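Q: Fold this one first, please.
A: Sequence and structure below.
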Amino acid sequence: MAQAVHQAYPSAEVIPIPLADGGEGTLEVLVPALGATLREVTVSDPLGRPVRARYGVAGETAIIEVARACGLQLLKPAERNPLLASSRGVGELLMAAYAEGCRHFLVGLGGSAICDGGAGMMSVPGIRDLASVELLCDVNAPFVGPTGAARAFGPQKGASPEEVEVLEKRMLDRAAIMQEETGVDVRELPGAGAAGGLGGAFMAYFGARKVSGIGRILELVHFSDAVEDASLVITGEGQSDAQTLQGKVPYGVLQNAKGTPVALLSGRIVDRPALESAGFHPVVEVSPRNLPLREALIPSVARRNIQSAVKTLF
């Protein structure tokens, strides 16, 4: 994208700012932003197999991306089964950082393969010693119910309609256990259903504070300073639609652009009127409609399409 801008305007100053919203990619964004160092440890993947997972350390602050330990990307499509998947690896990742002296935890929730309400995480010895946890999350799903962890997100993690109802019963049981142990009723707490209910476990056991993932990350990378004198901000994602306006990266950028025009370049554009009404201008679809998704995702093809879209923008 930066190359395409320079081709259109060779004298332009372009400031690339990698962003994330608390899901995948959060670690790569926050490690340089906070001057952190990367660590790597072996933890359990969603099915209990050993996997190497990275986390960041900046003084007493740990940067944890739960998907590193329990993410969908760790499983083959045929392996996805939230009835079996566990969050234990997240607890192991947290305890590795705790053993290193970290006492504040920035936890990015997103991309998980689990729906265990944090039961696996809480089974790790010593985990209840944690205290200061900040949840980077833009999902407001409650713990249970029609828009909760099981019913809203279970199908995309591999659960059948019948299995979703089994998961819902498990989550209700889990909520009852947490209330008995902590006094906190997570069933309807906004964000408690994030990452298969990990949000609720963090809130109940550690008094975790949920903050806007993209908002907090924009603050940590000093986004406002970077766009102070900008003439244009360009952002995008794989597909932009009405859900983009519910706290995803592009909307966070739009809200924090200080009146600077924000162009939206995404692989696929759905709900264009809603996106334009929100303030994105122009809204540009990167991938040709007749291009199969598998081809659009090839890095060289994606790069070419993005550069073509930027040229179209200018």
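Q: Good. Now the second chain.
A: Here it is, same layout.
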Amino acid sequence: MITLGNKQTLTVIRKTEFGVYLADTLDPNRTKEEEVLLPRKEVPSDIDIMDPIEVFIYKDSKDRWIATTKTPLVMLGKTATLKVKDINNVGAFLDWGLDKDLLLPYKEQKGTLNVGDEVSVSVYLDKSKRICATMWISDEEKKQSIYENNARKLLNKLKKCDGFLPLNDKSDPEKIRELTGFSKNEFKKSVGNLYKQRLIEIEENGIKLK
């Protein structure tokens, strides 16, 4: 079953001039609702029919389900701190790393927002099955947001260090703080977060990007 708001591995079932169509079933009797388009600009040059590919599913500006190989800054049911890119009569629009910005409806806002503000939000599906953001998040979700932001900072640190840091859960706390600016607890939680997302590998002498 193809689901909105998360990453999943689907199979290429056919190619068109617009891109490739993906499905999670090879049943020839599947409906059009069981297929989703990966636009041509995002199709890997070496991909072929029956190949698997990991994608994120969301809705485009015309409210059509669409696939992307990009990983958004936040997914359904998760929290993150995002920047306000635009504001109109519908609400605020947040930069979450995809072509179409994430809607933060007025009713889901706290206080007055301005372009450039950074806000902590959680992602949910509204009654129309649109992916939206809300600032009304629980204390537990706020804690999770903090850990995910720490994880993003660690990921950026890895990229700046050629994809490797000589640190693990047995490293000295002072060395961890010296190289990352994190406490040991923050570091361990961030590593766990990135590992679950399959963004890093944990080795005996450190961590590295996949």
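Q: Anything worth noting on the second one?
A: The mean pLDDT is 90.
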